[in-house]
Every structure is written in structure tokens, then in C-alpha cells.
Amino acid sequence: xxxxxxxxxxxxxxxxxxxxxxxxxxxxxxxxxxxxxxxxxxxxxxxxxxxxxxxxxxxxxxxxxxxxxxxx
Amino acid sequence: xxxxxxxxxxxxxxxxxxxxxxxxxxxxxxxxxxxxxxxxxxxxxxxxxxxxxxxxxxxxxxxxxxxxxxxxxxxxxxxxxxxxxxxxxxxxxxxxxxxxxxxxxxxxxxxxxxxxxxxxxxxxxxxxxxxxxxxxxxxxxxxxxxxxxxxxxxxxxxxxxxxxxxxxxxxxxxxxxxxxxxxxxxxxxxxxxxxxxxxxxxxxxxxxxxx
Lengths: 72, 211
Prior knowledge:
The structure holds two protein chains of two kinds.
Chain A: H1 2-16, H2 53-64
Chain B: E1 4-8, H1 18-27, E2 37-41, E3 49-53, H2 62-66, E4 72-74, E5 80-82, H3 92-96, E6 106-107, E7 112-113, H4 132-138, H5 150-154, E8 160-164, H6 165-178, H7 188-192, H8 195-208
Antiparallel strand pairs in B: 1-8, 2-3, 4-5, 6-7
């Protein structure tokens, strides 16, 4: 009985390591998803296609011109 | 596409603090943290100038250079962001930043200094774009929604420009030319002085005594 309890405790101790989150700092740089990949649909601005980089860049340029008094 | 940049036109800024309010509201920024603020020079004196300041997303960011845990990264659009899961809140970035952009919220009962918080150019963080986790840590990801930063988009006088650096430069150049100014407003002339300034100094040196 004692051996079984000891074995159970030991296996519990050994398994506790499995829930540890990795704490290393060598994550690859720029792990963020690109902005042109889009976000939640409810808040997306109309006029461009999520996932299409060229379309997103055009959307940014068009949107930027709203800040230009001389093109309005 | 060029890098994303902010530019504040001091001739237009009226110190309304609308950009500050827009930023706080858009990202649910906690008390005591101002990702953006308006700085006024010669306040109260005729001809005072105001300017909206936040993280300028430097091309060679000193915060990135000094971070001991390397939590900063730069997106393809040149936006400087950081990972709050890695940040230890040491404050080195705050000493390195010439704009005072890094902010530290007070957390918990004893007001412990929390993880660094700063302007994200409305580009969120490393979490999934538009997710609840991203909003909670970094605020809205407007770039992924096809929008530009809230502060620049809602600026009533359009003093604060934000977006593609080339487009922003074009807009400002048109303004400066319309005001009757030329290349002295930006570029080489501003950074290094006019060629004539150097000549006049040289001419004045023999008469002026000590240099």
C-alpha cells in the first residue's frame, strides 16, 4: 500500500512538470500577424479585402487622404 | 509602402486634447496612463505652440536597444510594438525614450508599477488581430480593420497626421507650400541650417572674438 502511495506521489511530481509554460526568451522576432490579414468582421472598414496586401495598402492611402484638406 | 509615421503640425494644433481623449477612449487606457499628450511651448505667451506627442515609432528605436528582455519588435510597416508577456516593467525604455512615450500603470492595492504601456499606432500587439486578449492588453487594432490611428483620424484641425510616411510628408509639404514656405520648413535646411547661415558665421568670426 505504502509503495503504491509513494509511486502515485512520485508520478504526480513527475507529471507536474508537464504543465509548466516555456519561459525561454528566444522567441522569433516579429511574431505578430500582419495588419493586412484583417481583424474581427464587425469592425472592419469597407473597401478592402482582408488578406490582400495590395488592397490594404490602397485602403491606407485612400484613408490617409482624408487627412488632406487640399484633396477634399 | 513606406513606414507608418506621425507628424504634428504646430501651426494647426489648438491644444484641444481631442487626440488624447480619442486614444484613451479607443483603447480603454487605464487611469494614470497617457499614451498621447499635448505639449505646449511658451504656454500663456502670445504665439504659443502646441504639439501632440506620443511614441514616434522611431526607425532606430532606443527603447528596443536598451530593453533587457528584448520584448520589442517592429512590424513590416515600421510600427514599434512590444510583448507585455515578456516585459518585466523595469523602466529602462522610459529613460531611453526622448519622447517620454513609455508609460507604467499602477497595479494592485499597493500601486506596484505594472508592465509598460505605450502608443501602438493602433496596431495592437502580438495576440491574434482583433481578439479580446489583444484589446485587453494593447487596445484596438485599427490597422487590421483597415483604419488609421484614431488620434490622427479624428483631429479636428488635421494638425496631427498619421499614416504612410510618404503620404504624410506629401500632405505636409502641400500645406507648407500653400503657406508660402519652402524647403526650409522640412528636410536638410531644418536639420543642418541654411548654407548662408554658415557663411555669415564665418564672416562674423574674425570680428566677434571668441568662438
